[in-house]
């Protein structure tokens, strides 16, 4: 009888702790990052305050297609919106509205797993670039797999895929420091 009680007692606090972790606000794992379904956050230089673009807001931007091989060399057609259009939709001041015409600004993209890549702002600006860097949400007509989506940056003609950031959560506009 006594044995039974001592064995059960330590389980109780653990049970309640497990219950508390089910509450999203108290669970460190769910607080660490915005859920992917929340869309994409745009912040930094040129913005009065950070903007959280919802999937519905992103869906309203003009859609474009980009063809490139995937990591296995298979030719794929990605579709989505221009990364530059995402910045504009967030209300970011860009180009000539930035110090030094934005020539020393870059966009730092961050993913759910902490992976990051940067793009010079001019690389994304249609007034400069001859290619479109995409915030894709579809590949060959299908929504991106959970491991890549809901949003992946697609750089059309780059030989390696290192800057094709999967599971993009945030874009930050940064001015290079002198
Ligand atoms: N979020 C995230 N995106 C990422 C990476 C990563 O580690 N995390 N690796 C990059 C690299 S180095 C490559 S080659 C491709 C690989 O894409 P794949 O895993 O879809 O083949 O994703 C790129 N995007
Ligand atoms: Mo890579």
TrEMBL record:
<feature type="domain" description="Oxidoreductase molybdopterin-binding">
    <location>
        <begin position="77"/>
        <end position="171"/>
    </location>
</feature>
<dbReference type="InterPro" id="IPR000572">
    <property type="entry name" value="OxRdtase_Mopterin-bd_dom"/>
</dbReference>
<dbReference type="Pfam" id="PF00174">
    <property type="entry name" value="Oxidored_molyb"/>
</dbReference>
<dbReference type="InterPro" id="IPR036374">
    <property type="entry name" value="OxRdtase_Mopterin-bd_sf"/>
</dbReference>
<protein>
    <submittedName>
        <fullName>Molybdopterin-dependent oxidoreductase</fullName>
    </submittedName>
</protein>
């Amino acid at each position: 009888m006594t044995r039974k009680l001592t064995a059960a007692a330590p389980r109780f606090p653990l049970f309640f702790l497990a219950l508390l972790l089910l509450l999203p606000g108290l669970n460190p794992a769910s607080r660490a990052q915005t859920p992917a379904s929340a869309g994409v956050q745009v912040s930094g230089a040129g913005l009065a305050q950070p903007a959280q673009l919802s999937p519905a807001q992103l869906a309203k931007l003009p859609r474009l297609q980009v063809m490139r091989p995937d990591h296995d060399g298979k030719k794929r057609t990605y579709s989505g919106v221009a990364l530059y259009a995402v910045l504009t939709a967030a209300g970011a001041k860009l180009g000539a509205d930035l110090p030094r015409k934005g020539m020393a600004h870059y966009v730092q993209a961050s993913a759910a797993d902490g992976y990051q890549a940067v793009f010079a702002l001019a690389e994304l600006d249609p007034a400069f670039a001859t290619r479109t860097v995409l915030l894709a949400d579809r590949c060959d007509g299908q929504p991106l797999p959970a491991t890549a989506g809901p949003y992946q940056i697609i750089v059309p003609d780059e030989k390696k895929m290192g800057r094709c950031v999967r599971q993009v959560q945030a874009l930050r506009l940064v001015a290079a420091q002198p």
